[in-house]
Structures are given as structure tokens and as C-alpha cells.
Design a protein that fits this description.
Helices cover 39% and strands 23% of the residues. The chain is α+β, with helices and mostly antiparallel strands and 146 residues long. The longest helix is centred in the middle third of the chain and has 19 residues.
């Protein structure tokens, strides 16, 4: 028997980082994204975000390619956001996304971090947060559109 743990902390950002994910309709958007994760036989622990980005913590099914699931999440949610008219400033998602594998021992800390996004962003910008997460993962941060 194989033992596989694929827990990912994922961040998706609006195109041009436009602050267009309004508070009134976020839960509807989160429901669309969560449903897409479930369609990929994966489990979503938490989803939350702010006006210009969303964090997800998922257990990815071992037979699902992360890139395929992300393509579908971004495509389906983008279509719904435009069609619904609930997010009039939304132009689409940025091309990039960030996905960081985490261990089970860090799961609760990441859940708490994601749950407190509004508080977190009272004094930290998206770009500062994104840069910190990328660099903490040992990756090279590039400024958007670079």
C-alpha cells in the first residue's frame, strides 16, 4: 500500500491585483471553488481571502494533477463571476498562482492563518504576503508581470 499526503496551501490572485472580490458575495464564490475541488475528488479544509486574492488549503487526490485542478478552478470561477454580475470589477484571475506543499503538522497553523485573512491584511499588502510565502518556500520571487 502507498501512503501519500498531498496537502497544499494555494493562493490565487485577481488579474492586475484589482480589489474586486466584494464581501457580500465571497461565500458564493467560495462555494463555487469548493465544489470544483470536490469534483476533483479532493478535500478542501478552508477557503478565505480578501478583495484581491483567495487562499485554499486542500488535500489533493493522488490521481489529480494540481495544474489541471487549478485550471478548472480558475476557469469555472472566472466564468461564474462574470456571468453572475456580482463582481463587476473582476477581469479574471492572474496567470500565476502559488501552491505550497505543507506537512500535516502545519495544517492547523495554516488553517488559522487562512481563517484570519481580513485581520492579517489590515497591515500587510498582498504583495508583501505573496513575496514572504514564496521566499519561505525556498522559491525565487519575481514581481508581477516580470
Amino acid at each position: 500500500m502507498s501512503y501519500i499526503s498531498s496537502i497544499y496551501h494555494i493562493v490565487i490572485v485577481t488579474a492586475d491585483r484589482i480589489p474586486c472580490i466584494n464581501i457580500q458575495h465571497r461565500k458564493d464564490l467560495y462555494g463555487i471553488i469548493a465544489a470544483e475541488v470536490k469534483k476533483h475528488n479532493s478535500f478542501i479544509h478552508i477557503i478565505n481571502g480578501d478583495y484581491d486574492h483567495i487562499h485554499l488549503l486542500i488535500n489533493l487526490n493522488q490521481q489529480v494533477a494540481l495544474s489541471s485542478m487549478m485550471r478548472d478552478i480558475k476557469s469555472k470561477s472566472s466564468y461564474w463571476m462574470r456571468k453572475s454580475g456580482l463582481f463587476p470589477l473582476f477581469k479574471g484571475w492572474a496567470k500565476e498562482y502559488a501552491a505550497f506543499s505543507i506537512s500535516e503538522s502545519h495544517r492547523e497553523a495554516v488553517i488559522n492563518y487562512i481563517a484570519n485573512q481580513q485581520e492579517h491584511h489590515k497591515d500587510k499588502s498582498l504583495d508583501d504576503e505573496y513575496r514572504r510565502l514564496v521566499m519561505k518556500a525556498g522559491l525565487v520571487y519575481r514581481t508581477p508581470n516580470a
